[in-house]
Amino acid sequence: MLVKIEHLYKYFNGEPLLKDINLTIEDHEAVGLIGVNGCGKSTLLNILMGDLGFDKTADGLGSVEVSSNCTIGFLRQNSGLESTATIDEELHKAFDKLISVRKRMDELEQQMTELAGAELEMVSAEYAELSAYFEANDGYRIDVNISRILNGMGFGDVPRDRVISSLSGGEKTRLALAKLLLENPDLLILDEPTNHLDFMTLMWLEDYLKTYKGSILIVSHDRYFLNKVCSRICEIELGRLTSYKGGYSAYLVQKKHNSERQLKEWEAQQEEIKKLEEYIAKNKVRASTAKMAKSRQHMLDRIELIDKPLMFTRPPKIQLEYDIEPTKDILKVIDCPLTVGEGESRKTLINSLDLHIRRGEHAAIIGSNGIGKTSVLKMIQGLIPHERGNIVWGGNIKTAYFEQEHNILHKNKTVIDELMDRFPSMTPAEARKALGAVLLTGEDVFKQISVLSGGERAKLCFAIMANTRGNVLILDEPTNHLDLNTKEVLEDVLAEFKGTIILVSHDRYLINKVADRIIELKADEVNLFEGNFDSYSEAVRAMQQTAAEAEAVRRRAEAEAARREQKEISYRSKEQRALDAKRRARVKELEELIEKAEEDIAVLEGEIASPEVGADYELMTEKCSQLEALRNSLDEMMEEWAELSE
Q1: Domain boundary among 262, 284, 312
Q2: Do 403 and 493 reside in the same domain of the chain?
Q3: Closest by Cα among 643, 646, 537, 564 to 144
Q4: Where are the alpha helices (DSSP H) in 14-63?
Q5: Who contacts 305 (Cβ-Cβ below 8 Å, separation ≥6)?
Q6: Domains contained in the chain, number
Q7: Are residues 156 and 302 in the same domain?
Q8: Cβ distance 329 to 395 under 8 Å?
Q9: Which domain holds residue 620?
Q10: What DSSP line would sit under 99-154, residue for residue?
Q11: What is the pLDDT of residues 518-561, one digit of tens each?
């Protein structure tokens, strides 16, 4: 047990933010902490870190216990780095203790050349102890580990002597996370770690955290990330914390069952309260029944109120239907350059873009920030020009466009006027019904669009889309600004939509649920993947594995060629030849062991990706531990092989 929280309360201005919180974090556990903004997640983390006090019950209950030997690493949303340090200097700070040990070992090595007798024996004993510690904690692989983490976190091409003050805000966040991973604490606390990470970095981080040797506590809104990494989800709702086994998808199923049960209990309690209140009102003024009424009042006062589950607040009703069936070929983009900006700022993002969208496809366009995903959506609609090539739409096409910044809305109009001006035949009653379906009701329909929140503007756009009845939906980040309830409704509607969808989104959970084809944009390259985001991830990992294997073969071939060349030009004594023979035997043995380890890793990765293993937490943990051990062993063998092959 690393952390144990019992009966914790936290009050602000006399009102409880956290009520009777109980949470235990065990060794080797990945816990996701979720809840709406302002529910108390960050408060709970600050209490756990000792940065904020907490309140106890009237009986003095309430405690936060952290194991005495537990090291905690906390990635805050604004983690500080030393701005004047270089990347290399900052990351080496994660190994301060090991570097100090290495320095002391160097001092002892010098002393051992000058001492004898008992003094030498004492110094040698200290050296042996430090050497064992240094080796056990990967001291000889500090630079290798730094390079591995930097590459995974997207700093592979960034010079390590670059000063931190020159990095962007997103780069600093990524670097802070890289440093924390290198520190390897027993409990890793991450507050919104997926911000500023592209898909490739996210996939690497998910793989890394799945085999992390310590425990993890993650606060995140990234549902796909929570699904991939977490073995337990803890939700703070109405001040209380509820724990659910499994990832995010498992949480949704359990939450629904719990909420249905809680709703029945709440309804039964409300009925009981109503009966008690009616009895008290009728009988408290009559002398003959006043005593009974007073007794009922005591019963009413002692009732511990059950909270109505939030899941049963009225969800929006988004209906996306169309009237005309389009042709089989929806869209063809042929040899079109993607160019943005004007004048000196004009820039070509993709020299030649080719796309083919077919009827009924749900295609998601993904790629790194700045590659031009939104610009592609605008170009195919003629909102920005293209210099050459052709954009050909099929017949009977009717598009409905969701623009992420909502610039298609007229800010000076009211909500109801915006809708009715777009659909002149619509009556006020029909307009209010359409707006009510997306939870824009009452006086809200007379608000100016300029004062609406991002979520309210998005809901208005969905109302417009629903009434457009388009058979091709063009969606640019449709889940930005939406609450979780609305996101889930929208995802279900889009997944069931029979028409065509062209989608751009950073929400991998949405993409995974809605898309059946992934279009990956890179500079001068378009890659197509059939299936959802899970299928895309598997394909990318397979390609990376193939590339890694090819690189390993290339390195071995280069090393072998170098060895042969050295053999031809080097003079070898009888003793040297004997050593060479021993070395060759070891190289051959290592090559066989490396090949076997690579085969075993491939088998384990396949088992981990299977649904059977994914559904069994203990088996998954065991397989991940085996995989991490195999990878470490392979790294060590590869290092030895490389040294012997020189």
Answers
A1: 312
A2: yes
A3: 643
A4: 41-48
A5: 269
A6: 5
A7: no
A8: no
A9: 563-645
A10: HHHHHHHHHHHHHHTT--HHHHHHHHHHHHHHHHHHHHTTGGGHHHHHHHHHHHTT
A11: 999 987 788 999 999 999 999 998 998 898 888 888 888 888 88
